[in-house]
Amino acid sequence: VQLVESGGGLVQAGGSLRLSCAASTQTFSSLDMGWFRQGPGKDREFVARINWSGGRTDYVDSVKGRFTIYRDNRKDTVYLQMNSLKPEDTGVYYCAAGTPSFRYWGQGTQVSVSS
Known about the structure:
Elements: E1 2-6, E2 9-12, E3 17-24, E4 33-38, E5 44-50, E6 57-59, E7 67-72, E8 77-82, E9 91-97, E10 104-105, E11 109-114
Parallel strand pairs: 2-11
Antiparallel strand pairs: 1-3, 3-8, 4-5, 4-9, 5-6, 7-8, 9-10, 9-11
């Protein structure tokens, strides 16, 4: 399974970005998907996950109400809509896939939020 993220960039605080993660696999619809991030000088942390059907989502408390994870199983793609971005959201965002644990990882996309 190969995962390719896109959509990162530089945005001002309060702005929005949408990250995409395209998967090259015929089993995408059976995989749970997730987003993680690693800020400067920090450990990688969980951000959001969505189950194989899209019927269940989970978020880290710091992004609840601002970020939305969703998927399109026809396009083998998972998205992370990020609104009301804050400088502390800055980091490299990684897509992950796997059931029950995340075994596959993308290379990451940089998100930078200026104050």
